[in-house]
Write a structure and sequence with these properties.
25 helices; six-stranded parallel β-sheet; single chain; 825 residues; alpha/beta
């Protein structure tokens, strides 16, 4: 019986609205399966690696299917459950499967198509046709045989090289082809063991006697092997060299003599060393009550919100829940919003679960990310392996290939770091985790001291279960909160730079008592802007409509939107005056000026600029934990669930900057930030103190923080949101249109808004220019759509998608980019 002709629908790593169908050569029929990668040609014969989504026997009607070129994987790299999640995300967040594929797969698993060029066999005959620039390329190819377009760009010292390459191809001098390069490089180690002949003890002893007399260094290595590693049968070569204080050349001599033999093996980068595991955590009465309530509620509903005040010991409750789930042979996903948090949590979880804990976030190397993926994938493929795992991850953890998920914990669930803003898919990890849990019939626990208003609303209306912990662990009191009116302090001339006298006094008292201090300023850099005293001119980014921020550490002006860097101007760009002064202040300036008041104090910063290297988070947090740092100055990073024993003072330097942000969530987020950073004070022995510096102490949000009145804050916000049609009463979809020509953009935005208003009525607002109306030389316009909860969001999305597709197919607006954000902010 002849083999059937098979066709496959594939996901290409591009923002395409549908899947493409390819034909499978007969000889590859047995190699294909859903979830494997294949190499395909798409558009102008450019090669891509695509994922097989479905296998069928019917060809496409609209076009003739091309053949796939090769199958890359021995086993699938994506599971059916992952594809189910991708399909949901594509429908809910109005994005393509290709965009999800790009976000989901670690870069080390994805293969890249890199254009390379070679010389034609008869290129010598065409030398008379070659000009000077082309000769440089030929010269390089005669030396290297094959080069990439990036290398050509460097050789010619110019960015655009395609026209030159095309001319050389037309002349018959060059050939162009696509080569697929894999990014993942497995880690390999050389292992050493005794050859079969020397497994005989008598022969081995004779050889040792000879070596002791003729080659004592070789004898030492052999003795080291026997002493330490004989029971293991084999040893890592580098470990043997280190223990014996020897070298690879000595080992090579033993290999030549037939005593040792070597074997190169692929090894994991993931931690697998022995770990001391602590005894079970003992819960206090309040934690135990919460733990029991959670288990009871999970019999009724699958989603639960744990509202525990700061320092109430939520992590200990999580640990008990994790123990129960892994005892059932299931996996746990523990999501955190910020990589800065993982250092402390990893240590705490590994003390209890040892090497069952695996970590996955963007600060890992690509090879490490691939190995986490593969280790989980192997368990997915082999159902007999019930080796359970706790996966501690940032938002990308929702994409991993789980096989038996039993519980998802979303810690600090209110954090907007769980939201992916750019590029697509613009998903929210918390909401995606709820759907992921459904696919496995798993439970989801949302935890926070300051829950998001949507989650608290859902819990209050019985959509979720709710459990609260109202007392701090160890009976520690909530910190004393003191408000300082900056306006009044300035009027009385009591402010010293950006510090009130009270704050400086309290910092000094804490330092004298060998206690630590955290200062929170929600701006990085040294000064937000430089300003001319005469005319008010400020240096702006050349690519974006935003002023440049001054960073003193490297004497630069920097754009926080596109990364543009400029030198500090000596004169005003408008009037030429040389009196240019700094306005406002960021964490860098706080750090520098505090050192003037406390010169003997060790001060450090925790912000995006100070934590760019892989291990900088761990280093700063570790040094603060061990009291090597006395004062920690930071942005939002210092607010996110970190646990320090010796912090007695927390200072919030400028509370008003958060409250005045033009965003319907600004009051909610301001409360959360102030309450969370306040929770870092007074963790163990004594009650802490929080000093909030502000222009308006009577502001409702600041008063709610002062009174620790979360419920009142939520009630006030819900009234406002219901009145002005915001979540949780309405769903939001934001369309951002971008184009380099403002007039084209403006016409297009008004055209699309008009069409949408005809279909959806007053639910459509805009178009309006956002606060920053140009980014990376593209002008922006926003259209906001508010859909009431009672209406069908699915129908609304269908209408929006149809109008966007029609808009993109309109000739004059084809070049306008439309960026869709479901549940923005």
């Amino acid at each position: 019986m002849s083999s059937p002709t098979l066709f496959i629908d594939v996901i290409l790593p591009l923002a395409l609205p549908k899947l493409y169908t390819y034909r499978v050569p007969m000889e590859m029929n047995d190699s294909i399966s859903v979830g494997k990668q294949v190499v395909v040609s798409f558009k102008s014969n450019k090669l891509y690696t695509a994922l097989i989504r479905t296998i069928k026997e019917t060809p496409p009607k609209e076009y003739e299917a091309k053949y796939i070129l090769s199958v890359l994987d021995d086993e699938p790299i994506v599971t059916d459950r992952q594809f189910e999640l991708w399909d949901w995300m594509s429908a809910y967040y109005l994005c393509s499967l290709g965009e999800i594929m790009n976000a989901a797969l670690p870069a080390g698993l994805k293969l890249q198509s890199e254009t390379k060029i070679t010389l034609t066999p008869d290129y010598k005959e065409k030398e008379s046709l070659i000009n000077d620039k082309e000769f440089l390329i030929v010269d390089a190819l005669e030396l290297n045989h094959i080069i990439t377009l990036d290398q050509v760009s460097k050789i010619l010292d110019q960015k655009t090289v395609f026209p030159i390459i095309k001319v050389m191809i037309d002349k018959g001098v060059l050939l162009i082809h696509e080569e697929i390069d894999t990014k993942y490089k497995p880690r390999k180690q050389v292992y050493i063991k005794l050859t079969e002949a020397y497994a005989n003890h008598d022969l081995l002893n004779k050889e040792l006697d000879i070596l002791n007399k003729k080659a004592p260094k070789q004898a030492e290595v052999l003795m080291a092997f026997l002493k330490l590693f004989y029971d293991n049968k084999e040893v890592v070569r580098d470990e043997l060299i280190k223990y014996a204080d020897s070298s690879s050349s000595i080992i090579n001599q033993l290999v030549k003599k037939g005593i040792f033999e070597t074997e190169e093996k692929e090894v994991s980068r993931l931690s697998n060393g022995a770990m001391d595991v602590e005894d079970k955590v003992v819960l206090n009465d309040y934690q135990l009550q919460a733990f029991k309530e959670i288990n009871e509620h999970f019999t009724n509903k699958d989603i639960l919100l744990l509202h525990g005040i700061t320092s109430s010991g939520k992590t200990e409750v999580y640990i008990h829940l994790i123990e129960e789930v892994i005892a059932e042979g299931k996996q746990v996903l523990y999501l955190l919003p910020e990589i800065a948090l993982t250092t402390q949590i990893i240590n705490r979880l590994k003390k209890h679960f040892g090497n069952q804990v695996q970590v996955y976030h963007s600060r890992l190397s690509e090879n490490e990310r691939v190995e986490v993926w593969k280790s989980l994938m192997n368990k997915s493929l082999d159902k007999s392996k019930q080796n359970t795992t706790v996966i501690l991850a940032a938002r990308s953890g929702v994409f991993l290939p789980y096989h038996n998920l039993g519980l998802i914990i979303v810690d600090e669930e209110h954090e907007n770091s769980f939201k992916q803003f750019d590029p697509a898919p613009r998903y929210h990890a918390r909401d995606t985790a709820l759907v992921l849990a459904k696919f496995f019939d798993a439970k989801t626990l949302l935890g926070s001291a300051t829950p998001s208003i949507e989650s608290y609303y859902n819990a209050s209306n019985n959509k979720y279960e709710l459990v609260t912990i109202t007392k701090r662990h160890g009976g520690v009191l909530l910190p004393e909160i003191v408000l300082v009116d900056i306006s009044e302090e300035k009027r009385k001339k009591l402010m010293k730079s950006h510090f009130s006298q009270l704050l400086l006094d309290e910092i000094k008292l804490a330092l004298d008592n060998k206690e630590q201090v955290i200062l929170f300023q929600n701006r990085r850099g040294f000064a937000p802007i430089l300003e001319c005293v005469t005319c008010g001119w400020t240096p702006h980014c050349v690519n974006c409509d935003v002023s440049l921020t001054y960073h003193k550490s490297n004497e630069q002006l920097r754009c926080h939107y596109c990364g543009y860097v400029a030198k500090i101007p000596k004169n005003c760009g408008a009037c030429g005056n040389n009196d240019i002064r700094m306005k406002g202040f960021g964490t860098e300036k706080v750090e520098e000026e505090l050192a003037i008041f406390f010169p003997e104090t060790v001060i450090a910063r925790l912000d995006l600029d100070s934590t760019r290297s892989k291990y900088s988070y761990q280093q700063i947090i570790g040094d603060f934990e061990t009291n090597k740092i006395n004062v920690l100055v930071g942005t939002q990073m210092v607010t996110k669930g970190l646990d320090f024993d010796n912090v007695s003072i927390v200072g919030i330097l400028n509370a008003d900057s958060m409250l005045n942000f033009p965003d319907f969530r600004s009051y909610e987020r301001s409360y959360q930030l102030m309450a969370q950073v306040s929770g870092r004070a007074g963790r163990k022995q004594k009650r802490g103190k929080v000093i909030i510096q502000c222009q308006n102490p009577m502001h409702p949000i600041i008063q709610h923080v002062l009174n620790n009145d979360f419920e009142k804050m939520v009630a006030d916000e819900l009234l406002e949101r219901n009145k002005f049609h915001f979540p949780p009463y309405y769903r939001l979809i934001k369309l951002t249109l971008k184009h380099k020509d403002y007039n084209v953009l403006d016409d297009g935005a008004h055209h699309l808004a008009k069409e949408l208003k005809q279909a959806l009525g007053s639910r459509v607002l805009g178009p309006e220019s956002p606060l920053v109306a140009r980014v990376r030389n593209l002008f922006l316009k926003d259209i906001l759509i508010k859909i009431e909860r009672e209406a069908s969001i699915r129908n609304a999305k269908k209408i929006i998608s149809e109008h966007i597709n029609n808009f993109k197919n309109t000739k004059e607006y084809k070049s306008v980019y439309v960026h869709i954000d479901v549940d923005p902010y």
